[in-house]
Amino acid sequence: MSGVADKRNPVLDCCGGLNNVDYNKVDMSVMEDVLKYIDVYDPRFCVAVIAIIFNPFFWNVVARWEHRTRGLTRLFGGPYLACYCLGTLIILLNVYRSHSMTVAMKAQARWEVMASPEVFYAGAALMALGSVLVVTSFLALGFTGTFLGDYFGILMEEKVKGFPFNVTENPMYWGSTANYLGLAFMNASPVGLVLTAVVAISYQVAIIFEGPFTEDIYRQRAQCCKHK
């Protein structure tokens, strides 16, 4: 999934600034305590991890193949229908990912340290924040802008620079991550925390591959316009 934010204006990236974290100062004893409650050999946990990693890998591979060959455009008779079909498949895969994460959370032990009203309400607040980021991002980009339309040659006329892109550069990704973290809090689920970390890492890797590639697509469009 992609979006085009204004690169000329500084972006306050409240959720994606992982490069600023000093990992040497992280208290690993807390993570060790969390891992005591997690069965990594549980098939439901393994399915959730596979679903999390597979989704961004799938849409990046398919979208790049489409950009290179226009195979989906030819198959569906046009770029818009092809983009809508791929986007619908991505949505279904994400629904399954959410389902598999929920099943894994319910199957494993709760962490009593998290079983408090304060943690529950913090989780609800995270889910509300995440939903706002996801919904407003979708409204700002539209269906094709959200679901890799630029790989199909469906380019936006100008870069999106309003909310939520003036808050974080990848609001769809970090909004989804906030939703999963909130769900883990509300369920007092240590396995939910680990799965949310896997989601965040998967999205960070996807951004590394998607960002430069999307910028190159628009750079090529700009060069073509100059030569006309």
TrEMBL record:
Topological domain spans for side Cytoplasmic: 97-123, 209-228
Lineage of the species this protein comes from: Eukaryota, Metazoa, Chordata, Craniata, Vertebrata
Membrane-topology annotation of the record: Multi-pass membrane protein
UniProt function note: Catalyzes the three sequential steps of the methylation pathway for the biosynthesis of phosphatidylcholine, a critical and essential component for membrane structure.
Pathway connected to this protein: Phospholipid metabolism; phosphatidylcholine biosynthesis; Lipid metabolism
Location relative to the cell: Endoplasmic reticulum membrane; Mitochondrion membrane
Enzyme kind, highest EC tier: transferase
Residues where S-adenosyl-L-methionine binds: A128, L129, G130, E210, G211
Topological region Lumenal: 1-42, 64-75, 145-187
Cellular component terms (Gene Ontology): endoplasmic reticulum membrane; mitochondrial membrane
PANTHER family, per database record: PHOSPHATIDYLETHANOLAMINE N-METHYLTRANSFERASE
Catalytic activity: 1,2-di-(9Z-octadecenoyl)-sn-glycero-3-phosphoethanolamine + S-adenosyl-L-methionine = 1,2-di-(9Z-octadecenoyl)-sn-glycero-3-phospho-N-methylethanolamine + S-adenosyl-L-homocysteine + H(+); 1,2-di-(9Z,12Z,15Z-octadecatrienoyl)-sn-glycero-3-phosphoethanolamine + S-adenosyl-L-methionine = 1,2-di-(9Z,12Z,15Z-octadecatrienoyl)-sn-glycero-3-phospho-N-methylethanolamine + S-adenosyl-L-homocysteine + H(+); 1,2-di-(9Z,12Z,15Z-octadecatrienoyl)-sn-glycero-3-phospho-N-methylethanolamine + S-adenosyl-L-methionine = 1,2-di-(9Z,12Z,15Z-octadecatrienoyl)-sn-glycero-3-phospho-N,N-dimethylethanolamine + S-adenosyl-L-homocysteine + H(+); 1,2-di-(9Z,12Z-octadecadienoyl)-sn-glycero-3-phospho-N,N-dimethylethanolamine + S-adenosyl-L-methionine = 1,2-di-(9Z,12Z-octadecadienoyl)-sn-glycero-3-phosphocholine + S-adenosyl-L-homocysteine + H(+)
Primary location recorded for the protein, binned into one broad class: endoplasmic reticulum
Biological process (GO), any one: methylation
Family to which the UniProt record says this protein belongs: Belongs to the class VI-like SAM-binding methyltransferase superfamily. PEMT/PEM2 methyltransferase family.
Keywords assigned: Endoplasmic reticulum, Lipid biosynthesis, Lipid metabolism, Membrane, Methyltransferase, Mitochondrion, Phospholipid biosynthesis, Phospholipid metabolism, S-adenosyl-L-methionine, Transferase, Transmembrane, Transmembrane helix
EC annotation from Swiss-Prot or TrEMBL: 2.1.1.17, 2.1.1.71
Tagged with keyword Methyltransferase: yes
Record has Lipid metabolism as a keyword: yes
Protein name: Phosphatidylethanolamine N-methyltransferase
Regions that enter the bilayer but do not cross it: 43-63
Gene Ontology MF, one: phosphatidylethanolamine N-methyltransferase activity
Cross-referenced InterPro entries: PEMT/MFAP, Phopholipid_MeTrfase
